[in-house]
Amino acid sequence: MTQRVLVFGGNGFVGSNIISSLSETEYEPVSINRSQIDFSDPEQSSAITNLLRDDDIVVLAAAKAPAKDLDMLIYNICMMNNLVEGMRKKSLKYILNISSDAVYGDPDGKIDETSEMSPLNPHGIMHCMREKMLEQRIDLPIGHLRSTLIYGPGDPHNGYGPNSFIRLAMEGKDITLFGNGEELRDHIHVSDVARIAVGMIDNKIDEPINAVTGAVVSFREIAEAVVEEVPGVVKIKSRHRTGPMPHNGYRAFNNSKLLRLLEDVKFTDLREYIRRLVRENA
Questions:
Q1: What are the C-alpha distances in Å from 271 to residues 127, 183, 189, 224, 268?
Q2: Contact criterion met (CB below 8 Å) for 137 and 86
Q3: Does residue 139 carry a pLDDT above 90?
Q4: Using alpha carbons only, how large is the chain's radius of gyration in Å?
């Protein structure tokens, strides 16, 4: 019998890409989204249970993100509580929780899976709490995929970085950087995150894995790569910072655990992605 994989949040940015990657395998992906069930409604936990079968694999990609304030944090915790209550009544084969690198603080040097969980904002606190809720209340194999900054087509957030820079340039608008755009960050393509998720499912990895490339690039370098590819006159401007530089301007990762456990993982080249996307939409 084909192995079912239920993806809660299967129509979201990450969830839909996981569905797509699963569709290229022998798994039977099933997308569950909030148009079918209100995950935040406590009365819907029995409906969640009824969707599940013993021996199903579940991917938890449903979240209202990024969680920017206390109300959003509480909403996401209530959602996870209802999902946990629904899942506890079934003997599932494996659970993959889509988390975030925001669970970590700002340690000296590179971050890896042994770094202290010390979230700095509501989004990180939310993901940290959701991980702990799963681990403490469900006695099943659970993996946590902690992704860094994600880029790629279909991003609903238009966050500062590759996605918004490309959209601005394609509209003929200038790109404005915070300060000089000197922060060094790791960026990973959403399809790479999806393939890592499938790899974790294949191997039933029941521990945290950071979905990171292990390389860093500055926001200015990204903006310059975009401007170089976009025809017309698009300028890079700077905006004076009103607060401290996030993460002290440097957030890098050691991805040796990922490469050891998933030897075949490959990463999309950010500059090549920019070049291809711009030319496809020219």
A1: 30, 17, 11, 10, 9
A2: no
A3: yes
A4: 19
∠ CA 109-110-116, nearest 5°, is 90
3.30.565.10, 3.50.50.60, 3.90.25.10, 3.40.50.150: which CATH number matches 152-185+215-253+268-280?
A: 3.90.25.10
Q: Is the pLDDT of residue 282 over 70?
A: no
Of 22, 2, 4, 25, nearest to 14 (Cα)?
A: 22
State how far the Cα of 173 lies from the Cα of 177, in Å rounded to an integer.
13
Q: How many CB atoms lie within 10 A of CB 125?
A: 18
- Asked whether residue 157 carries a pLDDT value surpassing 80, the answer given is no
Q: Coil, strand or helix: which one is 127?
A: helix
Residue with tokens 């698009």: 234
| Predicted pLDDT of residue 125 | 96
Q: What are the tens digits of pLDDT across the range 40-98?
A: 888 888 899 999 999 999 999 999 888 889 999 999 999 999 999 999 999 999 999 99
CA distance 92 to 55: 5
Among candidate residues 80, 79, 82, the one with its CA nearest the CA of residue 131: 80
